[in-house]
Specification:
With 226 residues, this protein is mainly alpha-helical. The protein is built from twelve helices and no strands. It is elongated, with a radius of gyration of 20 Å.
Length: 226
Amino acid sequence: MNTSSRPVDAAVAAYREGHLADAHERFAALAEAGDPEAQAWFGSLHANGEGVTADLEAAFAWYLRAAEQDHVPAQTNVGAMLVMGQGTVADPVAGLHWLTRAAQAGDAMAQSNLATLHFKGDRVPHDEAAAAHWYRRAAEQGHYPSQARLGFMYANGLGVEKDRAQAFAWLSLAAQHGVGTALSALEGIVGQMSVEEKHRGATQFDQWRTRTAAVSSPARLVPVPG
């Protein structure tokens, strides 16, 4: 088994190679010793029932310990769990705090979750401009669902000025990665576009098409429902 110099890397390697009992033991010791990366991974094991009985309350507790040490993916999970009342009593205000903190640190999943909450106006004030802002931040990192939602907002002038070229670009980016709703929406606007709009849309598409959202560890929870 290949490991690097950090003890937590040996635990991650054990996990990736399917040695869940070994990974659990390593993560547990490191998490108890205060390692935030191990705490986040240990939370993930509990959230997903890997090497241990699934336990969202334990998952939340470990994510929170990591989040309080500025582990950004854990902050995202804490925020989502607080909003949805998973593993803890629902507290949308506290959840919004953690999601905003992680989103401002550049986490695409936090940005997408925050945008969804603002767009729905469920548990937080309805704010389409804020939703568009955070969807764009995530979309520019290559987060495919956010690209689809941002394209929808440009197509319909929700939170942004209606712009078919921008809609074409973002919907095309999402569609190339198999987001079916993006493909359907794209088909609906192409026939309405001028040659100039199509040119601008293609230019925007080329600008962002190489972006791919970073895959951060530990594994994510299901995002806030859209």
